[in-house]
Every structure is written in structure tokens, then in C-alpha cells.
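hiii so my PI (J.) wants the whole complex modelled not just the main chain, which honestly fair. so below is everything: two entries, each one labled with what it is. i double checked the lines twice but i was tired so who knows lol
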Amino acid sequence: MTAASATPTAPHVYLEAQTRWRVFEIVFWLATLVPLVVFPSYLVLASQIAITALFALSLDLILGYAGIVSLGHAAFFGFGAYTAGLIAKAGWGEPLSGLVIAAIASGLLGYLASFIISRFRHLALIMITLGLGLLLAEAANSASWLTGGADGLQGIKMWRLLGYFTFDLYGYAAYTYSLVTLFLVFLVARRLIQSPFGLSLRGIRENAVRMPAIGAPSRAHIRKIYTISAAMAGIAGALLAQTTETVSLEALGFPRSADVLVILILGGAGHLYGGLIGAIIYMIARDQLSGLNPQYWYFWIGLLLIAVVTFLPNGILGGLAQLASRWRGAS
Amino acid sequence: MMMSVFGVLFDGFAYGMLLFLLSVGLSVTLGMMNFVNLAHCSFAMIGGYVTVTLMSQAGWPFFATLPLAFLVAALVSIVLERLLYRRLYRATELDQSLLTIGIVFVSIAAAAYIYGTVQQPVQLPSYLRGSFHVMGLTLGVYRLFLIGISLMITLILIGALEYTRFGAQVRAAVDNQRMARGLGINVDRAFAISFALGSGLAGLGGALAVEIVGLDPAFALTYLVYVLIVVSVGGLGSIAGSFAAATLLGISDMAGKYYFPELGAFLIYLVMVGLLMWRPAGLFGRR
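here's the output for the full assembly
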């Protein structure tokens, strides 16, 4: 399958070859700047896409690479959003430090949860992630004195970004802020995945029992990546809270966990760009289709899921990679 | 105070029986093929809508619609099994969950398109309405009927699994699928039949549930969580386990709503996570 098995190379040569930036990647990141110039009226949507892409990237780390299926990942997204929102509401509206605090808080929650997560696999794991997510959502709903309950968290006032840019209705600051954050986190994720640690994660995905036998502690690795992924999801949540200046219960509900799973699978899990491509397609499609009839949006999503699973088991990027390798083989 | 304790126990037990009907089919099929069928409650929803439609549009009596709810749900499940599920028997749990979540989304949107998002009313025959008063307790007639019909179905199911040739094949396939194949048992056929029967039972459960919990397009997702809790806590492929888990869940849900209304569903999820951490394979699970 991979280059390593096709041509036997030294491990460090393989790892170095992976870290090289490809033309596709450079084009992709340059293209993210296009909305700032060409579609200024869609910048609010664009910043939503960047936030969703970051969230999907965090899920990709645990699902695509370590093989941990989670139906409750929105818990960390929502926890980060509420942390950032509550800090701002308490009077500290500085965005960057709020982002860091939210990441640390979500990471801590993820670290605690990882002790449970790393002990289970298969159906029990899916059910426990689902249960933990629902628990947190119910807790947030009950603690309405803190979270505002069903009305959402009102009265968030953000200060200017770096003391200069305001989060306004046009979304210039929001998009730039989200995009830069996404890019920085992406760099971290990319470095992580291409390290020996990232390779051992893929080993865990393929065979969790065999990895300890070659000296890689599966559970410790799973705890690490789960904590990192939770912190990233928290950053995404905090971005949403800060750029929209509101947090609702919907930030940590089950539909958001399901949505991000759909996005990742659509794009292709286990490719760094899968969540990003998936988020772009999903969010733009929702923006266009829900204008027609919002009620039936999930009909198309459902149909899409059935089609992707039946015909494109590795998502769009997986399908493209397959096509590319077939083309290369033919020529 | 004592009275209300028994009242909660009774209502919770009736509710648990409903959950048992909804989930027993999933438990058997999950145990046999390890197929994660998250669309199970969509089949239940089909049963509910069949009953509501037949009663309001065609004027059928309540009892006559129940067999049809069973049949239609079973038929739809057979078609879907042939078209979609069959391809994914050897796929990962993730692919299976995604396919079936897709079916759930489509079924919800389809139901909303045909019936709208409002709650569907059901008009029970007069002899099922009202309640008994026994020793100061108020027992709803419909809940008694629900308990009776569920216990009857449980007995039939256990009898069929324990004493018929087909039941023995199903048990063998649940215990060890490869060994059962090696002995010449047609596991695919046994699975297809039990899948249809399980979906039919879900359809029946859905039809019976309309009076207790109402029916709207979100049914397929709302009750999925409950059904999954019953199945994973009870243990895959175990009818006794599902029965115990459904009873436990029904009573603790009722008690939670009655005594700690401010906690909402928090208690249920706490019980589920705790039980799963204690016994990941379920209360009666062997794996």
C-alpha cells in the first residue's frame, strides 16, 4: 500500500520524504486566501468553514490515524467554546489568551477522558464516547446558571484582536483569525503525524494488540493523541465562541458530533486534508441547499453518506488517490 | 410515598417493556453478524406511521393495524438488507454506523416530508383507555396491555430460540459464526430471517409506542440512544440481557424523571457509562 512497503528504504528516508511540501498543498493554502479578495460577502461563511475544518482535523487525528471511533467529540468543542465564552463574559475579552486557556481546559478534560477511552475498543468504545458526550450536554443544560441553558450564553464582549482588529459583521478579522489559527494547528498536526509517534499511531489503528509487542505502548499513545485532539477541538470551539460572540447548547450536542464525523468521512479519514476538503464541501453545500428547504437538508446528507460508504469507502481524497495511482500505473 | 414508589415502578416497567420490544431485534442481529445497525429505530418509526396512517386514513381498528406494522417494517428491512447492508457485512464498524446513520437521516427527512414534523395522534379503542384502581394504585389499562403483550412476545421468543431447529441455528451463529458455517448452517439465511423478524418487532414496538411517547420524525434518532443503551448494557445476542437492561433502563428513567426532574436524562447516561465501564461486554455478555 504505502511507499515503504513498495520500495524498502531506511525509515528516516521514508519519514523525510513524507515531510516534503507538495505542490497540491501549497496551492491549497494559497487558495484559502482567495475569499478575502474575491468573495468578501462570504467571509462569515468562510470563517465557519475554517472553524469546522479545524474541528474535523482534530477528529482525524484520533479517528483517521489512531482508529478511535468517537461519537461524542463535540464535547471538547463545546467545552472549549463555553470556556472561551465564560472568560470573555467574566470581563477578560482578550482573544488570544482566551484561545490558549480554552485549549488547555479542553485538553485537560480530554486527558481525564483518555484514561477511560484508552481501555475500550469496538462497540463499547462507541457507546462510551456517545455517553460521555451526552452526559456533558445534559450537564450544560442543567447548569443554566452558568451556561444560560437553552437560551445560550449571552453577553460575550470580545476585545479587539491584537488591540487593533474588531470582530465585525463583515468577517475580515474573523476569517483571518480563524484561518491563521487553522494553519498553525495544521502545521502541528502535520509534524505530529509525520513523526515516529504518528507512525506508531497508524500501527495502533492497524493492530492495537501487536503494537505493544514491538515496544510501542498503545494505551499511552492513545492517551497522548486523545489529549492533543481534545485541545484542538477546544481551540475550534473557542474560535466559534469568540468570532460569533455567542455559545449555544448546540455547540456540544450529538448532531455536531455526527456532522463532523460525516465531514471527515466525506473528505477521507486518515488524510490530513480530508477534514479540510470535507468541511469546504459540506459547509458550502449546506449554505446553498438549506436556502432551498432547510428541513430536508439531512435527506441529502443521508443519501450522500450512503453513497460515500457504498461507492467511495475512503472518502473523496481516498478515491482521488486511487484514481491517481491507477493513472500512474497505466501511463 | 409508598404508593408513588409502586406507581413509578409500574410505569417504569411498562416503559421498559416498550424499550425491550424496540431493541430485542437489534440485540440478536448485532450478536450474530456484528453489524452495527443504527437504523433500527427507523424501522420502528415505520411501524408507528403505518398504524397512524391506517387508523386515520383508512379507519382501521387499532388491533388490526398491529400485524401490518410488523409486516411493513419487516418487508422494508428485507429490501434494505438485500440492497445495502449485504455489501458491508465484512466492513468496519465505522462504515456500518455511517451507512445506517445515513439511512436514519433519509428516513427522518422522508417522514417529515410526508407527515410534517407535528406529533401524530392515535385514537385508542375505549377498552384500552382509562385505568384500574387497585389498593390505592392507579394502573393504566394500556400499560397493563403493553406489559402483557411484551411478556407474551418474550415467552414466544425464548421458546422459539430454545426449542426450535431455527432457534438452535441462530444461537449457534451468535456463539461462533465461523464454526456454525463449518457445520453447514446457512448463517446468511438465518441472519436475513432474524433481521427481518427483529425489524418487524421494532415496527410493532413503534406502533405500540405512539400512545406512550408520541410519534414525530425525530423518533428514529431519539429512541436510537435508548435502544443502543439497552443492547450494549444487556450484552449482544442475549434476550435475557436485553430484558433485564430494558427493565432497568425503563424504571431508572421513570424514577429519574419523577424524583429528579431537574437532572433530565443525565442519570440514564451516567448509569450507562458506569455499567459499560464495569462490564464492557454488557451485563449478560460473554465476549
